[in-house]
């Protein structure tokens, strides 16, 4: 860094002398890339870019979203069907999660094929593995939030898988769900994980990952030594910045076009009682979904927990195992072969899942029906939620006029401003207590007496004495007693 | 880390590219922020929901009485993604010509619910004793204007009312929602 006083003039100079901004910018932009800018290096910065896009769209979506089992689906429908640009922003966010996963796979593949995890880059690789897991967590937790059919059932299956973990599985599943069953507490937990806990961890891991990357230095082409690069370096700015920028813009353009022409669907509200529903995860979880079919009964934890853990462990320990400095993929047949095999296996599992769904007439018909239900729900105009417990009760009472005495009493309750303090329908308000169930504590005589001459405690609370003609008093007291 | 020689042409080239980047970045950000702004401003641009007509009862029954009638009407309001239904009190008063008018029970003084008192043949507010005559005109007390009339119409023999709130403590009727 070129410390000391900045010679810059004007506003930038003023700012620089107080912040050292110029040195930070130079340190960032002059990162040396051995062998110069390449398209192959864009995936890391593209991931940061899409992550920021997810953060921004996510913050805006939170303006309307409510994480509760009774409102989540309504608020997402409101965003999708009513709010200006709502469907577009939600689609960018939802498709963005797929974009993150694709870019992540490309980033890992590039790093792997280029052997860029070699040469004192173990911690850099491990922090990347951490980010891999965190991104999958984001995808998993975000998927539940719309609380539609596929969200509900995919999460029911996902949390059941967690339940397969030996010893702590049952506890883990209850912890994730906030109880034995899926419900509003599950939604709260997933929401908090999705918007607070996991993103905070991602920010921290990205900082660590970028720091470790700068510490190790860019690895450069496959022929380059990973520790002491010999090719002439080119600074990150401007050529690599342009390449990265063009790639980021391309991704956002693809997301925008996709979101505009094929808006991300919202299905009908989750209905746990729908026994016919076929849960299908988002595409990136399909291979593992298919994999689980081959591990019946008591063996399931081997397929669900043991084997994926072994694969993940070997994946994470790669730079500790593969210590040769050779980076050219054609000289590393075992490592590259294994990587390609795993990829092909995942693709194969995806293909098998597709075939088993579309080869069975019953499944096929149900999946078509589910897609049609989602399409139909999307076409229906937004229907606001009639809400408020006492409002519903009020409507019910008004719809079914029962006793004329009660009806008159209800009108007197409002006409005498009782509702100003005790709330509509006596449900309680900021200035007065709820009157619900008061008829069980006080009989007609006591209620009448309390209205005519309130106790000192009531008066202190703002209650005024009320004297009405006897027939009206009777109606009012009957009404209050019925609350 | 300044491997760059402090040659003025190199510096000016980089600074020129820097400006270009800044401009492109600003332009792209501006385009990308359009949906965000639209999304955020949606509640401001949404048309104020037309208050729906509420049923106040059959006209024939209301016409038969000489003194003002109290009625509870159900008012549906849209609050973002929810619909709320609340009970409001109105008085239906008949002028000497027999025309029905609907009065809001909200006192134009400070918003308590005024009550019809047969004995006094007047509306009296229980809070600060504002008094209004049988057709809602200001008679005595602190109210700055008479009781507020609400829009009404007759459909299929039933009197419909559009419930609204008006600003308190001002001499003229001003709709506030």
Q: What would you say this structure looks like, in words?
A:
The complex is a heterodimer of chains A (483) and B (177). Chain A has 483 residues and is an all-alpha fold. Helix content of chain A is 64%, strand content 2%. Chain A has helices at residues 10-19, 21-29, 42-61, 72-81, 86-113, 122-144, 149-162, 169-177, 184-216, 239-261, 286-291, 300-316, 318-321, 333-359, 361-379, 389-399, 404-415, 418-422, 438-441, 444-452, 456-460, 470-482; strands spanning 32-34, 233-235, 385-386. Chain A has a two-stranded antiparallel sheet. In chain A, α6 (122-144) packs antiparallel against α9 (184-216) and α7 (149-162) runs antiparallel to α8 (169-177). The relative contact order of chain A is 0.10. The mean pLDDT of chain A is 88. Helix content of chain B is 24%, strand content 33%. The model of chain B has no long low-confidence stretch (mean pLDDT 83). Chain B has helices at 8-45, 59-63, and strands at 53-58, 69-79, 82-94, 100-104, 115-117, 122-124, 131-132, 138-140, 149-155, 158-162. Chain B has 177 residues and is α+β, with helices and mostly antiparallel strands. In chain B, a hairpin with a 5-residue loop joins β7 and β8. Chain B contains two helices and ten strands; from the N terminus they run αβαβββββββββ. The chains are: A mainly alpha (483), B alpha+beta (177). Chains A and B meet through α3, α4, α5, α10 and β3 of A and α1, β2 and β3 of B. β3 of chain A pairs parallel with β3 (82-94) of chain B, so a sheet runs across the interface.
């Amino acid at each position: 860094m070129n410390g000391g006083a900045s010679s810059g003039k004007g506003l930038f100079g003023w700012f620089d002398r107080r912040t050292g901004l110029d040195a930070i910018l130079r340190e960032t932009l002059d990162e040396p890339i051995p062998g110069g800018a390449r398209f192959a290096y864009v995936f890391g910065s593209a991931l940061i870019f899409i992550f920021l896009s997810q953060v921004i769209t996510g913050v805006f979506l939170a303006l309307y979203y409510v994480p509760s089992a009774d409102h989540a689906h309504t608020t997402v429908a409101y965003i999708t069907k009513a709010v200006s640009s709502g469907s577009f922003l939600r689609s960018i966010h939802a498709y963005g999660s797929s974009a993150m996963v694709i870019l992540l796979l490309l980033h890992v593949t590039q790093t792997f094929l280029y052997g860029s995890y070699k040469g004192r880059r173990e911690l850099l690789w491990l922090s990347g593995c951490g980010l891999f897991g965190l991104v999958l967590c984001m995808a998993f937790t975000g998927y539940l939030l719309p609380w539609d059919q596929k969200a509900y059932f995919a999460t029911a299956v996902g949390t059941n898988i967690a339940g397969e973990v030996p010893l702590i599985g049952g506890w883990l599943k209850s912890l994730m769900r906030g109880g034995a069953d899926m419900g509003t507490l599950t939604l709260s937990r997933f929401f908090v994980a999705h918007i607070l806990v996991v993103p905070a961890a991602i920010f921290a891991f990205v900082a660590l990952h970028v720091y470790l990357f700068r510490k190790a230095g860019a690895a450069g082409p496959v022929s380059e030594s990973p520790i002491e690069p010999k090719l002439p370096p080119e600074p990150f700015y401007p050529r690599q910045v342009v390449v990265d920028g063009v790639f980021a813009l391309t991704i956002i353009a693809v997301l925008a076009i996709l979101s505009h022409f094929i808006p991300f669907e919202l299905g009908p509200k989750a209905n746990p009682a729908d026994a016919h529903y076929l849960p299908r995860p988002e595409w990136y979880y399909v291979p593992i979904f298919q994999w689980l079919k081959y591990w019946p009964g008591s063996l399931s934890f081997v397929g669900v927990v043991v084997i994926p853990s072994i694969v993940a462990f070997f994946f994470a320990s790669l730079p500790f195992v593969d210590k040769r400095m050779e980076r050219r993929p054609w000289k590393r047949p075992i490592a590259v072969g294994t990587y390609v095999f795993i990829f092909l296996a995942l693709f194969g599992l995806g293909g098998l899942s597709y075939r088993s769904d579309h080869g069975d007439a019953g499944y096929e018909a149900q999946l078509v029906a589910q897609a049609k239900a989602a399409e139909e729900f999307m076409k229906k105009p937004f229907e606001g939620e009639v809400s408020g417990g006492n409002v519903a009760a009020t409507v019910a009472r008004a719809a079914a006029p029962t006793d004329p005495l009660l009806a008159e009493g209800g009108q007197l309750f409002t006409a005498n401003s009782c509702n100003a303090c005790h709330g509509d329908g006596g449900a309680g308000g900021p200035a007065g207590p709820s009157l619900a169930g008061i008829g069980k504590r006080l009989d007609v005589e006591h209620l009448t007496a309390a209205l005519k001459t309130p106790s000192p405690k009531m008066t202190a609370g703002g209650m005024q004495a009320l004297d009405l003609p006897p027939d009206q008093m009777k109606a009012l007291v009957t009404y209050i007693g019925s609350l | 880390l300044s491997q760059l020689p402090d040659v003025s042409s190199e510096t000016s080239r980089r600074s020129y590219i820097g400006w270009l980047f800044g401009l492109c970045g600003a332009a792209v950000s501006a385009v990308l922020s359009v949906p965000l702004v639209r999304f955020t401003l949606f509640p401001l641009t949404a048309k104020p929901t037309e208050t729906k007509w509420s049923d106040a009862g059959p006209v024939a029954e209301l016409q038969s009485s000489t003194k003002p009638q109290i009625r509870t009407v159900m008012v549906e309001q849209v609050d973002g993604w929810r619909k709320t239904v609340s009970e409001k009190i109105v008085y239906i008063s008949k002028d000497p010509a027999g025309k029905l008018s609907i009065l809001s029970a909200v006192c134009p003084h400070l918003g308590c619910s005024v009550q019809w008192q047969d004995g006094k043949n007047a509306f009296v507010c229980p809070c600060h004793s504002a008094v209004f005559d049988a057709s809602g005109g200001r008679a005595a007390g602190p109210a700055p204007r008479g009781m507020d009339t609400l829009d009404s119409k007759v459909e299929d023999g039933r009197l419909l009312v559009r419930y609204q709130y008006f600003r308190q403590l001002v001499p003229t009727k001003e709709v506030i929602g």
